[in-house]
UniProtKB/TrEMBL annotation:
One Pfam short name: GGDEF
Protein name (database record): diguanylate cyclase
Molecular function GO terms recorded: diguanylate cyclase activity
Top-rank EC class of the record's enzyme: transferase
Amino acid sequence: MLDFSSLLLAAALSGTCLAVTMFAIWFTAPRARFVLTVACGILVLVAHVILFWRYTKEPDPLLCQIALALLSLGFLILCISAMQYLGVPDHRRAVVPTLAAMAICAALTFLGLDGVGFIVTYATVTVLLSTIGAMFWVNGSHDRRILLVVSFLSGTCALSFALCGMVLLAKAQWTLGVAPDNWAERLNSVVAVACMTGLGALTLSLHHLQAQIELKAETMTDPLTGLMNRRGLTSLHGERSFGPFTAIVMFDLDHFKRTNDIYGHPIGDQVLCRFAAVIRKYARTGVDAFRLGGEEFAVVMSRMTEERAYDLASKIGVAFGTEIVASPLGPLRSTVSGGIGFGGTDGSSLDEVLAEADAALYAAKRAGRNCVISRKRMGKAEPVEPALRSA
């Protein structure tokens, strides 16, 4: 059976190995800042364990203050790493209360109430670990099974620290003079080693999962405009059954090849980005925009009547017609043509709706461009807005 000192040393060794692994991962993927933060937090906790082990051998009030401060600081850093990973803003919500608790603990320990200092620190750590578990469960958008395990381990570790504080509180041990040594402390050492090792392994899993998500996002995003690309369209809507209130609008910038030939490709890229920006202005829930390639774009609209889809597509065309791109040859204003396809009452595939939208788009081109046509308006092309200077 391991004694208390052996448990502490085992925790320090486990934490050191885990921190080294985290640093190695961060060196290979510097963008994963939360991994670096986790490694720093674990190293701080290792320093706490070593100093606490020393305190069990040679009790000293200053050593006690430093060890307790490092315990709170280490879990604060881990809490910040969770906020980084989950994109939770305003770290001050965790930093300010923790620093205040650390100051109170230092003052109590300095006054000789080291038992109360331990209770305050254990309460602080319990809150931080509970916060980590709650944040992952509430804000996480990845595999819920992984998040459930993270929340469970954080909660279990929090409970073990809470038990340590409750034992001291129940025994009214306000002044200790030595390191606390009871069944809760021993249980906490075992649970902390197990939970921290598990959380470290899950951090690796979360890092791998995040890398996969980022890679998938990159493969589905057009690097020039920031819109999703054709692969993104297929991924999101490829298996979808399009009903009568779901539309796809295909847009094609008019005479875009001439724009590139006369004004140059950099100006052409600016025109594409301007159109993408116009689409974003009209984006809302149920409206997804994509750049299919070249000067072709698509907008998927859900819960739309034909009139509403036509009005929205026309507004996009009107807004783009007012955009002016500065060029060495003078201001450039371009236009766009659009075609709308709808799903059927029995459900239509993505390819079927795209084909209908493409046919309507070609009808708009034949009608003189700078207009939007839907299936019910094939022969009723209405100019969106005359261009002052069309490319």
